[in-house]
């Protein structure tokens, strides 16, 4: 089976988790319709405090379902939407994608990958010790972020669980994902 959407989630209010939905609608240049993080300029509270005029490179948050299995092996109970993502995927290594990758979701929606989610301490408030599971260091001492990727909406459309995901890698030299 190829890459697919397993769950979609959104929330019109600030909270750590997002309820699962039957579908979400992506709006070009904005994000998920009705989601608190939708907009042309940044909506995440810490980023608004730094500079409310910066562009919103975090319109849509995607997490790979495989992360939940890894967390379960470490004793954590995490389900789709619990970490605030909008789209949960399966069958695709999101963290290995280069910056600028285009993901076609379902029949119409298109997002462009902007970078890695940089998880904050709120994750430990959700489940104590979870931050160390989603942010760590590799053998070389480099920081490894596993809490998903962020993207911007290039073409809108409705997304539902079961929708296929098509990956289009950028042309030219690939730039690894950095935190956004």
From TrEMBL:
Top-rank taxon, per record: Bacteria
Family annotation (PROSITE patterns): MOSC (PS51340)
Q: Name one Pfam family in it.
A: MOSC
Q: Where is the MOSC domain?
A: 18-168
For molecular function, the Gene Ontology terms on record are:
catalytic activity; molybdenum ion binding; pyridoxal phosphate binding
Where do the TM regions start and end? none
- Its protein name is MOSC domain-containing protein
Q: The organism's lineage?
A: Bacteria, Bacillati, Actinomycetota, Actinomycetes, Kitasatosporales
